[in-house]
Amino acid sequence: MSVSAVSLSRLLRCSLSSVGWSARCACMRDPTMPGVRWNSTRLDADGSGRPATWDSFGIWDNRIEEPILLPPSIRYGTPIPQISLSKVGCASHIGRRRDNEDRFQVSKLMHNVLYFALFDGHGGPQAADFCHKHMEQHIRNCLEVETDLQAVLSEAFLQVDAALAAELQMYGNASLMMVGTTATVALLRDGIELVVASVGDSRALLCRKGKARKLTDDHTPERKDEKHRIRQSGGLVTWNSVGQANVNGRLAMTRSIGDFDLKKSGVIAEPETTLTLLQHAHDSFLVLTTDGINFSMTNQEICDIINQCHDPTEAANVIAEQALQYGSEDNSTVIVVPFGAWGKHQNAEYTYDMSRNFASIGRWS
């Protein structure tokens, strides 16, 4: 269907008044609008049992009421809902650890760019604290000279790593060269362009049509490409008593911010990045999680549990609590960012299984 900018603008405007994330104007018929070819209203055009003109996002009980962003919707040719930071759910639980070394942040960098970040510290909280304090500003600085969000995040990660090294060296304490952190950062521009960068084993998942879609891959010595870089750099990959691979017998990840004693052994701060254009009719949410959750729950299980929740705040707390119930002893932190299909893909058949074997899930599943 070819729709002019003017026609699309008229289509979108009729959904601005409290339509939720439901483009109800898509199922209205306006024969006066030129260049718009309307489908018939016969049933089951797509095998769904609904009329062919059923609205793009649908109607369901716990959709989130947000207005449509008109300029980007016209630019991309599809209804794009506003993502409000007040609707984002966050939770961080200490678990059975003495201290919580996880850090998270949610903010608006520019009028059209949102920022979501998780940092899971190890060896002490210093690296995670530094990223929590400085990562956002480094990204802001990069955005002033670069529009490619993947390039922005890659450069910001390297800058933060270098700045952390300079600060720790001032203290002259060798033990501080062993502190580090994971970093998983997501930028959302114009409500549709989602870019994720990560180092370490914190994760980002997108729930699309009810299924978990990985946006990150854990940086561990088990990965063939990561193991090759470590060995080429002169590092060693060893396995502990429970079969977990480590770099030089110390670190269970091959990329991180910090861990300066292992830089010459191939541990790097350069992130892997992904770019995804959201499909708000099918995408329910983005979820960022630390390993306290990842090692006790599968990706699909995380999505299934969130899909049972009424709102993102409830979802974040349920996920963190559920990880603890499933045997996680680590800090558990989660950020849930709702998208257009929030609440659309509930799985009534899913139930919490409290008898699962912890060793059969997580990283080694």
UniProtKB/TrEMBL annotation:
Keyword Hydrolase part of the UniProt annotation: yes
InterPro entries, per the entry: PP2C, PP2C_BS, PPM-type-like_dom_sf, PPM-type_phosphatase-like_dom
Subcellular location: Mitochondrion matrix
CDD domains referenced in this protein's UniProt entry, alphabetically: PP2Cc (cd00143)
Cofactor: Mn(2+)
Similarity field: Belongs to the PP2C family.
Name of the protein described by the UniProt record: protein-serine/threonine phosphatase
Lineage: Eukaryota, Metazoa, Chordata, Craniata, Vertebrata
Gene name of the encoded protein: ppm1ka
